[in-house]
Amino acid sequence: MDFDFDEQHRLLRQSVRDFAAAEIAPHAQRWDREERFPVELVPKLAAMGLLGIRVPPEYGGSGMDMQAYAIAIEEIARVDGSIALTVASHNGLGTGHILAFGTEEQKRKYLPRAVSGEWLAAWALSEPGSGSDAAALRTTARRDGEGWVIDGTKTFITQGSVGGFCVVLARTNTGVPKQQGITAFVVDRGTPGFAASRHLRKYGCRASDTVELTLDGVRVPDAQRVGAVDHGFADTMRILDRGRVSIAAMALGLGYGALEKAIAYAKQRTAFGNPIAEFQAIQWILADAKVELDAAALLTYRAAWLADRHEPFSKEAAMAKLFASEAATRACGGALQVHGGYGYVCEFDVERHLRDVKICEIGEGTSQIQRLVVAKHVLGG
Ligand SMILES: Cc1cc2nc3c(=O)[nH]c(=O)nc-3n(C[C@H](O)[C@H](O)[C@H](O)COP(=O)(O)OP(=O)(O)OC[C@H]3O[C@@H](n4cnc5c(N)ncnc54)[C@H](O)[C@@H]3O)c2cc1C
């Protein structure tokens, strides 16, 4: 995206772009093929400050704003959706929940380790029976003396098997409306009863770690509770507002990355004696993608800017995610079409971008749910 950010943002964009070109792009196809999260990349992400983007310096982080966060995710996604998803969920969900709602003791325990990459963060809201209707979750946490015992199953959890800790949402009260009886807990890897029970193979973002988790009599002290008892769902909604900005940024990066490849390909591929870039039908695919992605970028960076000004941005985040994910899916599809048969085979990256971008229409609230959020706001609900 070529809007003017301030000098600090421009420098960040360039440095993450260079890093992604050197350390991620050359391996992205192989990681996707191997369907494995590249743990060897973690120290490099940490050294770049990408594992503590929003974490204040007092906990070892980069202390950057939401615009910077979106820039970083966009630039990683330009070459690899899996790593963008990993960095987004680590920063925004698991680490973000501790940062926003954790106690000082929890921040001192978890944030420096998250920033250094010693512990990647996972965040477990979704369950086999509840995704969009997240408040219908069935995992329970019951008081047991001074602590809690958690039981249930979580699914689709990013970093579920490679994470060092996981923020788990569980029901703590059944006598109130379902949104008002949920509490967050942070569970350390290795806690008895807490296990990654199944790796999930995926359509896209194949190099990100996605698992089902089981919690079988997991005992945690009350010091592992994050936020107030029964307040976890309200806190979660705030986490997701920020998360949606990062997923919009991820969509942008995947879309722009695919568009760049399509432009380069259209200039060098010839048909009927001409570069295909000279055919108007091809030009329109490229032009539509550029217009839609720039419009999506404006929505995305508006939402980030509002968040940085501490103004309400829930509606704007939903609008950005909705439009950016759908625009980027169209842009990636167009880029594949421009590549013809070469787009469909795996040697060129556009098919990977198209597979990776689809998650942006699903994760952190589907497009249907974003429309519900926007409608609720415009109707004054
Ligand atoms: C790769 C990947 C990574 C993920 N990472 C995480 C993670 O780290 N942590 C986590 O907690 N979750 C994670 N998720 C889960 C993700 O957030 C959910 O998949 C998503 O919220 C949708 O929930 P669902 O899959 O249960 O679909 P459902 O809620 O069952 O929806 C099915 C369909 O019904 C539609 N629908 C549902 N309700 C309505 C309605 N009211 N009106 C109109 N349409 C509706 C949906 O839009 C969708 O099209 C991840 C998912 C994937 C695929």
Protein topology:
Layout: H1 7-34, H2 42-47, H3 66-77, H4 81-101, H5 104-116, E1 120-124, E2 140-144, E3 147-158, E4 163-171, E5 182-188, E6 194-199, E7 210-221, E8 225-226, H6 232-268, E9 270-271, E10 274-275, H7 280-308, H8 314-338, H9 341-344, H10 350-357, H11 367-378
Parallel strand pairs: 1-4
Antiparallel strand pairs: 2-3, 3-7, 4-5, 5-8, 6-7, 9-10
The structure holds flavin-adenine dinucleotide.
Number of helices: 11
**What is the chain-wise order of helices and strands?**
HHHHHEEEEEEEEHEEHHHHH
Number of strands: 10
Measured on Cα atoms, how large is the radius of gyration? Answer: 21 Å
Q: What is the CA–CA distance across the termini?
A: 34 Å
Assembly form of the protein: single chain
Strand content: 15-25%
Most strands sheet: 4 strands, mixed
Structure keywords:
Butyryl-CoA Dehydrogenase, subunit A, domain 3; 4-stranded mixed sheet; 11 helices; binds flavin-adenine dinucleotide; single chain; 4-stranded antiparallel sheet; 3 domains; Butyryl-CoA Dehydrogenase, subunit A, domain 2; globular
Verbal overview:
- With 381 residues, the chain is of the alpha+beta class.
- It has 3 domains: 7-120, Butyryl-Coa Dehydrogenase, subunit A, domain 1; 122-230, Butyryl-CoA Dehydrogenase, subunit A, domain 2; 233-378, Butyryl-CoA Dehydrogenase, subunit A, domain 3, CATH 1.20.140.
- Helix content is 51%, strand content 16%.
- The protein contains 11 helices and 10 strands.
- The protein has helices at residues 7-34, 42-47, 66-77, 81-101, 104-116, 232-268, 280-308, 314-338, 341-344, 350-357, 367-378, and strands spanning 120-124, 140-144, 147-158, 163-171, 182-188, 194-199, 210-221, 225-226, 270-271, 274-275.
- A 4-stranded mixed β-sheet has the order 1-4-5-8, with helices on one face. The protein has a 4-stranded antiparallel β-sheet with strand order 2-3-7-6, with helices on one face. A two-stranded antiparallel sheet has the order 9-10.
- Strand 9 (270-271) and strand 10 form a beta hairpin.
- Helix 1 (7-34) runs parallel beside helix 3 (66-77) and helix 3 crosses helix 6 (232-268).
- The longest helix has 37 residues, at 232-268.
- The protein is globular.
- Residues 89, 123-126, 131-132, 156-158, 202, 205, 210, 359, 362-366, 368-369, 372 line the site of flavin-adenine dinucleotide (FAD).
